[in-house]
Amino acid sequence: MIKSFRDLEVYKESYDLAIIVNKNVNKLPLFERNDLGSQLRRASKSVPANVAEGWAKRRFEKEFKRHLDSAIGSANEMEVHISMAKDLGFWNKDFCDDLIKRYNLLGGKLTNLRNNWKTY
CATH assignment of 10-23+30-115, given 3.40.50.11030, 3.50.30.30, 1.20.1440.60, 3.10.20.440? Predict the structure, then answer.
């Protein structure tokens, strides 16, 4: 049974991914930590934060969906930033491919939640 946003699979996965990303930002070159690193940190934290805030407003359909749309957008944004880190040679290819796959799956789960939120 779902009692809080912390019980949502999309929250757990997005939070885990944000922790992984934030722990690895320091592996970026110094000159990228304030640019790409900042984008990675911000977008990764945005996903679980929007899930949590949206859950608090779930009785207002439009508000809840707006926050889920923001979470989906940030998950998509993460795919771009991670691809950039990979293609610029800052992060390991396999590490990036795994993160991209997880963010892609997360985006699908967020979309499912958005479309079927009344059953939660």
Answer: 1.20.1440.60
